[in-house]
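PROTEIN DESIGN WORKSHEET
SECTION A - STRUCTURE
LENGTH: 373
TOKENS:
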């Protein structure tokens, strides 16, 4: 049951193309008979949080493409901003009712004691697994080739527990919480993901040489789970060495499983290596709910200039919405969307400044719609 649930959530995320050329993208695919269960094609309602900064631009792009595809999706839109004290109750009720949410970036105030709404969502919905897929896109030049890394990050504890207090004036104590339960379930998710997606290696990222008890518990959990998957190679790497290896030889990594803070750093580093945060999709998933958003948090709300000129890159959000479509059991729509996005990137004519072009968000959307099968 657990494997079937993982497969329905993020199990078949973003299939890789075997070739990196535009002619491949234009080849007709062999038709496959797909026999859905009764009710699988029923239109689904998805909670939409446009968010801050470029969020409304890129989520608006998704809405346009979904409409052009006639995807069986309806959006229940809610206005949420990062400076709110908490996620409004009606928004939480909407996500719990619909089970699935598509979210733009929410700006988190730096300092001042204001908690992150992103963290609130993950904790209240128990979205314990964050998945970011960092890979080379055909037509997008990068320093490294053959990059295809999946970063699976524990999403509910660690340094993000938010347990801080001032012991005496000028002295602050922050607690890092690691539990056996959370460490085991994220390790199981990572190995299940690797098993179901024909991945060969899982690498645990840690700092157990210094934090011997906390990160040691995380490693112990990963090692125990690894014994149940003898067909998957298991490695361990210290987080500082991991960062160095990522920027020098990223193609050596396959699936990476990490505690909370390290996962954020590793995912953003890998995203930058593989083409930038504007093209990397991601999702957060738990047993009952899933929230899809831009994979790398760096720059996910953009700048005032990007918003004013309407030149935000919608590719990451479009690919995240393809992940969402697979999660909702609409694989043919996900395939159409991914193929159209890859064609646009491969052509290189309608891309935003971060990818070497001059296009606006709307021009990218128009190009994607024009390339839909």
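SECTION B - SEQUENCE
RESIDUE ASSIGNMENT:
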């Amino acid at each position: 049951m657990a494997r079937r649930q993982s497969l329905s959530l993020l199990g078949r995320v973003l299939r890789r193309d075997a070739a990196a050329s535009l002619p491949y993208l234009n080849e007709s695919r062999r038709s496959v008979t797909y026999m859905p269960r009764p009710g699988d094609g029923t239109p689904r309602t998805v909670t939409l949080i446009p968010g801050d900064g470029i969020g409304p631009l890129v989520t608006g792009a998704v809405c346009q493409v979904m409409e052009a595809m006639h995807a069986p999706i309806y959006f229940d839109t809610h206005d949420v901003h990062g400076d709110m004290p908490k996620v409004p109750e009606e928004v939480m009720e909407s996500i719990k009712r619909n089970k699935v949410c598509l979210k733009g970036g929410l700006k988190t105030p730096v300092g001042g004691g204001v908690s992150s709404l992103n963290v609130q969502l993950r904790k209240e919905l128990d979205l314990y697994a964050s998945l970011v897929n960092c890979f080379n896109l055909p037509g997008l030049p990068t320093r490294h080739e053959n990059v295809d890394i999946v970063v699976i990050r524990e999403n509910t504890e660690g340094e993000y527990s938010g347990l801080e207090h001032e012991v005496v004036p000028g002295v602050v104590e922050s607690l890092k919480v690691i539990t056996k339960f959370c460490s085991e379930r994220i390790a199981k998710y990572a190995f299940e993901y690797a098993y179901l997606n024909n991945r060969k290696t899982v690498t645990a990222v840690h700092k157990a040489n210094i934090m011997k008890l906390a990160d040691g518990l995380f490693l112990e959990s990963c090692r125990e789970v690894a014994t149940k998957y003898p067909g998957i190679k298991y490695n361990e790497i210290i987080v500082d060495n991991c960062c160095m290896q990522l920027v020098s030889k990223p193609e050596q990594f396959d699936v990476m499983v990490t505690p909370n803070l390290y996962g954020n750093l590793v995912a953003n580093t890998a995203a930058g290596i593989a083409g930038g945060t504007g093209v990397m999709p991601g999702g957060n998933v738990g047993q009952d709910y899933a929230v899809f958003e831009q994979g790398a948090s760096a720059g996910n709300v953009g700048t005032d200039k990007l918003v004013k000129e309407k030149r935000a890159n919608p590719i990451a959000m479009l690919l995240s919405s393809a992940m969402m479509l697979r999660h909702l059991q609409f694989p043919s729509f996900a395939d159409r969307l991914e193929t159209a996005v890859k064609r646009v990137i491969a052509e290189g004519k309608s891309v935003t400044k971060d990818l070497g072009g001059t296009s606006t968000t709307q021009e990218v959307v128009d190009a994607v719609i024009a390339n839909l099968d």
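SECTION C - NOTES
The longest strand covers residues 158-168.
Residues 1-28 have pLDDT under 50 and may be disordered.
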